[in-house]
Structure formats: C-alpha cells, structure tokens
C-alpha cells in the first residue's frame, strides 16, 4: 500500500519518490556493469594463467635446448613443441567474452593475435586493423567513478626489453629463438634467449597482477553498490509505502474511539416508559 497514489496527493513527496526510483535504477545499471567487469577480469586472469604456463614450458624447453648433449634433431623436436605452445598461448590471448576479445583494446571486435605460417614461416602477429586505436577500455561503475579494464594486448606483446635494454616484442623473441634452434646456437639459447623468455614471463605476471588489483577494486565497488541499494530501497519504502503496523495501530485506536462514541450516544438517547408517561 502506498502513502500517495497520485501526484496531486502530495507533489513534494511524489517528486522525492521519483528521484529515489531513478537513483535505484542507476544503481542497478552500475551493478550490472560491475558484475560484467568482474566476470571479464576473471576470464582475463584465466587467459594469462594459461599464457604463463605456456611461457614457463617454453623456458624449460629453451633451457633443455641449450644443453650441449642435445643434437640437431632434438632441437628440431623442441622447436616444434615451442611452436605448439605459442599457438596455445595465442588461443588464450584470443579469448572472447560476450562478443569482445579480452585483449583487443578498443577494437574489441577484432581478433588481436594470430600466427602467420605463410611460405613455411612462423610469425606471431599482433593485429591492429586499419590503425584502430588500442588501449584500455573504461567502465563507469558509479556516479563519477570510472575504472580502466586492462584490455591493451600491446602490453603483453611488446612491453619488455632485451639484454641490451632495447625494446623487444614476443615475435622478435620467438624468431630469434627459432633461428638459434635451427643453428644449434647453444650460447644464445642458454643466455640472452633464456633471459628473454624469463622477462616475458615476468611481464605477463605483472599484467596479471594489475588485473588482480582492478578485480579487487571492482569487488569493493560491488559491496558498496549493494549497501547503497539497500539504503535507497529503505528510504524509498519509508517515503512511499505505508507502515502497516503503525497504520493498523492508528486504525484500531480510531475504531475504539468510534465505538466509544456510538456507545455514549446510545446511552444518551436511551428511552424508557417514563418518557411516555410524561
């Protein structure tokens, strides 16, 4: 039951009720965005966990290939397994969530990574179709509150350096690695290339840590959102709904007063035989 049924009943109260309902609707929209973003970061974390496992396996294989007891055939077998791990890693980085590639940046509808095997080669490609801007995607999770989801695949592809401090991307690293395997360059395999894979692992772990921090912020935002929703609903109910217990009490008191008035009137108006003898 409502305290007001028409705007004319109490215009000021009705205006306040409408404002509260609008805030509740916005609160629910923020809740949907927050929940979607939390799920999104969960998928990202899972993808980076898979990427880390692939890189760690590549590190182990590179370390084995640097062993002087391995021959050319052994290293070619290692090369084939590393290629397979790279493709597994690409599949993880191309994970799609709700129609969006999780590391596609602002061009989230385009697959960000691929492997080019033309002419017998093996090239890891980070796609940026038609020069589309890449970067993080911002989400509004509250009034005046924005959060950036770490969707920029470039940070995973080329955000580390070689031994000389020069910028290096994953494709350059793997190209050098395959070349060293083909030429049985154990010095490079056990030195700068092993270090390069290790830096790639560290970079992936750092990106995963950043995503974890964002996820913690989203979880805290979800808790605040739920508390705000309860406060808004309580205020709306207090403003709009009738307090049944209080209303029933008032009704009971009025009925008692009404019954007492009827009884008093009945006694005043009572007649007897003497009234007819007069």
Question: What topology emerges from the helices and strands here?
Answer:
Layout: H1 11-65, H2 72-93, E1 96-97, E2 100-101, E3 113-116, E4 123-126, E5 137-142, E6 145-149, H3 154-157, E7 160-161, E8 167-168, H4 170-182, H5 186-190, H6 192-240, H7 244-268, H8 274-277
Antiparallel strand pairs: 1-2, 3-4, 5-6, 7-8
Helix pairs in contact: 1-2, 1-6, 4-6
How would you characterize this protein structure?
- Keywords: Bacterial flagellum, Cell projection, Cilium, Flagellum, Secreted.
- This protein is mainly alpha-helical and 278 residues long.
- The chain has two domains: 7-239, f41 fragment of flagellin, N-terminal domain; 244-277.
- The chain contains eight helices and eight strands; from the N terminus they run ααββββββαββααααα.
- The chain has helices at 11-65, 72-93, 154-157, 170-182, 186-190, 192-240, 244-268, 274-277, and strands at 96-97, 100-101, 113-116, 123-126, 137-142, 145-149, 160-161, 167-168.
- The strands form four sheets. The chain has a two-stranded antiparallel ribbon with strand order 1-2.
- The chain starts with 10 loop residues before the first helix and ends with a helix.
């Amino acid at each position: 039951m409502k305290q007001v049924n028409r705007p004319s009943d109490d215009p000021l109260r009705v205006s306040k009720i409408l404002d509260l309902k609008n805030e509740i609707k916005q609160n629910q929209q923020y809740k949907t965005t927050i929940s979607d973003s939390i799920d999104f970061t969960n998928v990202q974390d899972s993808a980076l966990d898979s990427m880390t496992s692939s890189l760690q396996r590549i590190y182990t294989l590179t370390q084995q290939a640097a062993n002087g007891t391995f021959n050319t055939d052994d290293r070619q077998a290692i090369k084939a397994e590393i290629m397979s791990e790279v493709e597994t890693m690409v599949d993880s980085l191309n994970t799609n969530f709700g129609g969006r590639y999780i590391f596609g940046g602002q061009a989230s509808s385009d697959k960000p990574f691929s492997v080019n095997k033309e002419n017998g080669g093996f090239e890891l490609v980070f796609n940026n179709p038609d020069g589309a801007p890449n970067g993080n995607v911002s989400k509004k999770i509250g009034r005046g509150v924005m959060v950036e989801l770490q969707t920029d695949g470039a940070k995973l592809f080329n955000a580390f350096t070689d031994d000389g401090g020069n910028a290096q991307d994953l494709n350059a690293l793997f190209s050098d690695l395959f070349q060293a395997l083909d030429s049985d360059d154990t010095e490079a395999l056990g030195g700068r290339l092993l270090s390069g894979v290790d830096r790639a692992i560290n970079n992936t772990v750092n990106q995963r840590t950043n995503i974890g921090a964002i996820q913690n912020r989203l979880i805290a935002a979800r808790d605040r959102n739920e508390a705000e929703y309860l406060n808004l609903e309580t205020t709306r109910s207090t403003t709009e709904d009738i307090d049944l217990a209080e209303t029933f009490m008032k009704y009971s008191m009025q009925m008692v007063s009404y019954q007492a008035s009827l009884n008093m009137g009945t006694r005043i108006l009572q007649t007897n035989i003497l009234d007819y003898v007069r």
